[in-house]
């Protein structure tokens, strides 16, 4: 018997699956992960704890990890506020992707708007559509800042901000972020996936407003992208709703144990990685400028290099064993180098110098 094909939720036809080029490559600088490897204590736990971790369910809402994150956020890192951050203000998830998706689901009614800077993290409009919400792109200004007036005018149920922003690498101005936080009527998500590299944070704004959710991840500075560990900080009532939307058992036991070990023992290691990234980013920026391909001013662990024919250049680099992330047509920020390249650009992760040197050699061959 042939039944008529089931229709999916409205709008799902327009959602394409995320499909970056993941073919293996000798030097892979395409996804902004930690090119020095994973946090060492996490790796030790993964080797030791596997057998006992897989047979039972994990903790329902990762209570042990929340406690470790609360200690980390209170006492260490660039985001130290001097005030304790309580575990009740933290929700975890299967990557920060999961936390962002859950937050949109918890707060957006079908058909409501999500204001999103353009360009920004490519998955955000997808999460909006997955939750029957309407993504509203708002072009960044010529200084790579959010356009406060247009963002507020969107009257969105959810406003997404990202600092440092992916893929530009540029940080948002505190005064602009505060203006949005103080005046937006809905939920304000501030994505800090790369904040360790920037040495600054907006986490204090989660105390200033009950409608702010600070999103963070262990995928980047801690080098644990494969374990899928994200988290958010916000007012307890907000956190409780995101947790309802997220559901139980999203963080595996082995991931939770590895993360707790890393937060306890590897914070200094993260500091050395951040220092190496910032030194190599400075040097790489200088060299790129010399070869006529200056990047945007980044405070993340990657740089965006506007250039014509970025897709062709990326393919030529791949032939030379180097993967980077090309963008064909990013939103053209007026009066910026991105406008001059027609929105075409390469995003390159900052790794050890030998890798970046190989990129420079290849670019010298490939660039006209
Ligand atoms: N936010 C931003 C800005 C990102 O660039 C990424 C990953 N590319 C994420 C969130 C998601 O990271 P994860 O799910 O690994 O925590």
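Q: What amino acid sequence fits the structure above?
A:
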């Amino acid at each position: 018997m042939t039944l008529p094909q089931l229709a999916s939720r409205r709008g799902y036809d327009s959602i394409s699956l995320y499909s970056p080029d993941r073919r293996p490559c000798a030097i892979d600088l395409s996804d902004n992960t930690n090119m020095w490897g994973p946090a060492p204590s996490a790796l030790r736990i993964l080797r030791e704890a596997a057998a006992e971790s897989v047979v039972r369910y994990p903790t329902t809402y990762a209570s042990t990890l929340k406690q470790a994150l609360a200690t980390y956020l209170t006492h260490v890192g660039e985001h130290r506020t001097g005030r304790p951050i309580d575990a009740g203000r933290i929700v975890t998830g299967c990557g920060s992707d999961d936390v962002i998706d859950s937050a949109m689901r918890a707060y957006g009614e079908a058909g409501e708007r999500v204001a999103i800077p353009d360009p920004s993290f490519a998955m955000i409009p997808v999460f909006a559509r997955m939750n029957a919400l309407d993504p509203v792109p708002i072009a960044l200004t010529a200084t790579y800042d959010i356009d406060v007036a247009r963002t507020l005018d969107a009257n969105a149920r959810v406003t997404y901000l990202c600092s440092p922003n992916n893929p530009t690498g540029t940080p948002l101005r505190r005064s602009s972020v505060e203006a949005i936080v103080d005046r937006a009527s809905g939920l304000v998500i501030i994505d800090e996936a790369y904040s360790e590299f920037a040495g600054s944070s907006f986490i204090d704004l989660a105390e200033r407003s009950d409608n702010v959710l600070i999103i963070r991840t262990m995928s980047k500075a801690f080098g644990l992208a494969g374990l899928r560990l994200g988290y958010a900080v916000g007012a307890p009532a907000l956190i409780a709703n995101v947790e309802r939307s997220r559901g139980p058992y999203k963080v595996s036991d082995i991931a939770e144990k590895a993360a707790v070990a890393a937060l306890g023992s590897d914070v200094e290691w993260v500091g050395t990685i951040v220092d190496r990234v910032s030194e190599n980013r400075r040097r790489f920026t200088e060299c790129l400028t010399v070869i006529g391909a200056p990047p945007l001013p980044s405070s993340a662990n990657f740089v965006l290099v506007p250039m014509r024919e970025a897709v062709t250049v990326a393919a030529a680099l791949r032939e030379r064993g180097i993967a980077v992330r090309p963008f064909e047509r990013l939103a053209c920020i007026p009066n910026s180098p991105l406008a001059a390249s027609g929105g075409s650009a390469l995003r390159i992760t900052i790794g050890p110098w030998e890798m970046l040197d190989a990129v420079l050699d290849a670019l010298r061959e490939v660039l006209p």
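Q: And what stands out in the fold?
A: The mean pLDDT is 94.
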